[in-house]
Amino acid sequence: MMHRPHEDPLAPARPHPVPDAGPWPEPPVPGQVDPAVLGALLARHGWRRRGGAPGRYARWTPPEPGGGGTSLLVPESRAFPDCEDLLGEALVALARSACPTARDILVGLAVPSDEIHWWRDVPEGPAGAATWPAEERLRSAARQMLLAGALAARERAGYHGARRRRAAAAALETVLVGPAPGGRRLTAYVPVEAGRPLAVRLHQALCAVREAVDYQRATGGMDAFDGAVAAGAGHELTEAVVALVHGTEGARVAVEWAPGAGVPEGCAASAEPVEFSPGDLAALRAASARYLRDEPSAPVRITGAVVRMRRSSPRGPGTVRVRVLAGADVPQVRMVLDEESYLVAVQAHLVGLPIRVRGRLESRGGFRRLTGANGVTPVQVDEAERDRLMKSLQENIDFFEEACGTD
Where is the stretch described as Disordered (predicted)? Predict the structure, then answer.
């Protein structure tokens, strides 16, 4: 039987913290900026070092043509009395600069972050612009990839489905996203404090997928994709890569570590972007289907509130939908109960009590179905929780009406 994955709406990543045009609202406080970090960010974003007093400061100019005459004097350390003044002048100049990279550097200073970069090689439109659909595809694919990284950071699996999606989506709340000029490049800033596991796992998983694709194209074997799961690869990530590459002449993803936080254990200080081409799509799609098909079901013991009931006749088995409170990291599951268990679920629903049930969480449908459901029992809760459940019942009275009706 074919899988029909149902994806929850993705919480959008936070936008760039300031408008795409106009001056930066307020430059960082010089006393909170490490000169070495500022220098590393300038070099990362292509600024050119033009000399300066050795051991004291360096002069930097922007990479963009016509950079408005911007020139920064950046101290190399805090060992000299004029360090604070030089830093303050450099930060004000960055805040006033019209160079796009100046804004990227200020983001890196304001929120110490690992940077994830995406590129899509798509045909240029007039004046170098990309079409609206091309930019939307870039943002959508990047969002999918971030979610896949967040899922893999929590647990490695060939297919996550609905599992862990709420926690993974919540992990994206702190991610900042820069503008996508031309619709061909996008940068996400993943705060080190909250998001480094996401960035590390995504980087390792992409490398593993690249190696698995190379192996498949060379030998025809899919075994390398199975081993890539341990690095964080899976259905969600391969689907994100397909979305990124489709309709392009090629696509690349690179991760650059926050200069002030150091390089994560097991990662290279500087790594080339991971590249994919349209010729990789067949292997990626085959791997995605393989992950979807082969992820096993999981035995669970779920506690949840009954929110919907239905059966086709006054007697016999019926279908129950439960909002999961504990036992599985999914929002809701459906199950078919025999007549006795169905009546227990109805009674628990009427008095505002959750139920506890055992079964197997099936991958078919995105881990939203419990098969072999048994051992249904009401669960006693305190008065506050019971009142909350009863209020939820009253707000969703149509569910109760369905329990009394027939198909």
Answer: 1-32, 50-69
